[in-house]
Amino acid sequence: MTIDELNALPPDELREALYTCCASVSWVEYLATLVPFHSQDHLVNMAERCWHKCREGDWMDALMGHPRLGDLGSLEDKFKNTSAIAAEEQSGTHGAAKEILEELALANEEYEKEFGFQFILFATNKSAETILTALQARLKNDLETEKIMAMVEQNKITRLRLEKLLS
Q1: For residue 75, what pLDDT is reported?
Q2: Of 165, 164, 154, 161, which Cα lies nearest the Cα of 52?
Q3: Cα(167)–Cα(152) distance, rounded to whole angstroms?
Q4: Exposure pattern of 89-124 as b/e (b: 16+ CB <10 Å)?
Q5: Using H for helix, E for strand and C for coil, what is the string for the chain?
Q6: Rounded to an integer, what distance in angstroms lies between the CA atom of residue 158 and that of residue 15?
Q7: Can you tell me the distance from the alpha carbon of 29 to that of 20, in angstroms, rounded to the nearest whole number?
Q8: Given CB 3.0 to 4.6 Å as the disulfide criterion, which of 17, 22, 30, 108 pairs with 158?
Q9: pLDDT digits (tens, 9 = 90+) for 135-145
Q10: What are the backbone angles phi and psi of residue 94, rounded to the nearest 5°?
Q11: CA–CA separation, 2 and 83 (whole Å)
């Protein structure tokens, strides 16, 4: 899709397209009001501004729009609208050793218990081992630091998804 095609989408279709990039309804609503976009850079810059305009609850909505890293089974069940995107982003976990995926599942559970939300990482081009190492390292953070880390990672994912939407 081109930027002109995105700008020409009816409002419901525009929101649906944006929602595949970020599951925060507030973010989608903020960004949808800014159409038309002059370029891809303009869209990405406005998307980031809208992300920073969001509040913690909006950010948590975005995080819940992702399957657990390494949990490829949930891609088809719970995340149908973004399953292909997420599967590509998590392609480094495909073919990972069963033991690594089991450790990743346990670490994900520990993370969620510790912080109250799921672990999020810009996982594109990262192996399951790298993801596991990052998760284990971030388990050492305090809650406020981890919220910031998750918001930064979500913003990276959203940017990539916007760029893919326009490719």
Answers
A1: 40
A2: 154
A3: 23
A4: bbebbeebeeebbebbeebbeebeebbebbbbbbbe
A5: CCHHHHHHCCHHHHHHHHHCCCCCHHHHHHHHCCCCCCCHHHHHHHHHHHHHHCCHHHHHHHHHCCCCCCCCHHHHHCCHHHHHHHHHHCHHHCCCCHHHHHHHHHHHHHHHHHHCCCCCCCCCCCCHHHHHHHHHHHCCCCHHHHHHHHHHHHHHHHHHHHHHHCC
A6: 14
A7: 13
A8: 22
A9: 999 999 999 99
A10: -65, 130
A11: 22
Q: CA-based angle 46:126:3, to the nearest 5?
A: 25
Asked whether 117 and 83 are in contact (CB, 8 A), the reply is no
Task: Kindly report the pTM of this predicted structure.
Answer: 0.83
Structure tokens belonging to residue 5: 């095609």
- For the chain, domains (ranges, CATH) are 3-61 (no CATH), 70-154 (1.10.3330.10)
Backbone angles phi, psi at 131, to 5 degrees: -65, -45
Measured CA to CA, the distance from residue 119 to residue 51 in angstroms comes to 18
